[in-house]
Design brief:
By secondary structure, the protein is an alpha/beta fold. The protein contains six helices and eight strands; from the N terminus they run αβαββαβαβαββαβ. The strands form two sheets. It has a five-stranded mixed β-sheet. The longest helix is centred in the N-terminal third of the chain and has 10 residues. It is globular and about 40 Å long. The termini are far apart.
Length: 162
């Protein structure tokens, strides 16, 4: 199970460059901004979603100031009707608690059920700031490195303009 220490060890083993910042626990984008975490311009919000049949699960990663409706995401993904996945699914599939959702959480998805959707804007900026499976820290890394790491792990990653 990947927590903060294991995630940082993996980044080091994979020779992925990153900047690491510890801070008080943050549960929302608003709290993250108030915590004055460095490089907030690269901050990401993460939405853990499922379709209405509980067959498809998505972790949608987009710039933290970007507004997009579930309906818009559904249309872009050509998915069935979407809603937020349960806290139980979050814990079971990704080993995370609400407020610590991160694309790095799919490292805990041993069945590879969760598809990661990364907004194209985060690819264009080149870097992204995410939690290392714990909301008391943030890592800033190249978006391309994040995508490669997740794909090497066996996760499906799709870049979509949201």
């Amino acid at each position: 199970m990947y927590g903060k220490a294991e995630t940082l060890q993996l980044l080091d083993r994979e020779d992925i460059g990153y900047e690491f910042y510890e801070h008080a626990a943050v549960f929302t984008v608003t709290e993250a901004i108030a915590a004055d975490i460095p490089h907030s311009e690269f901050g990401a919000k993460n939405l853990f979603l499922r379709d209405d049949k509980h067959r498809a699960y998505y972790l949608v990663v987009l710039p933290d100031q970007k507004g997009v409706s579930l309906r818009e995401i559904q249309e872009r993904l050509r998915s069935r009707r979407l809603s937020f996945a349960s806290d139980r699914d979050l814990a079971t599939m990704l080993g995370l608690i609400p407020g610590s959702v991160t694309p790095l959480g799919v490292l805990n998805d041993v069945e590879h059920r969760v598809e990661v959707i990364i907004d194209r804007e985060l690819v264009n900026t080149g870097r992204v700031a995410v939690h290392p499976c714990d909301n008391t820290a943030t890592v800033l890394l190249a978006t391309s490195d994040l995508i490669k790491l997740l794909r090497r792990h066996g996760s499906t990653v799709r870049v979509v303009a949201l």
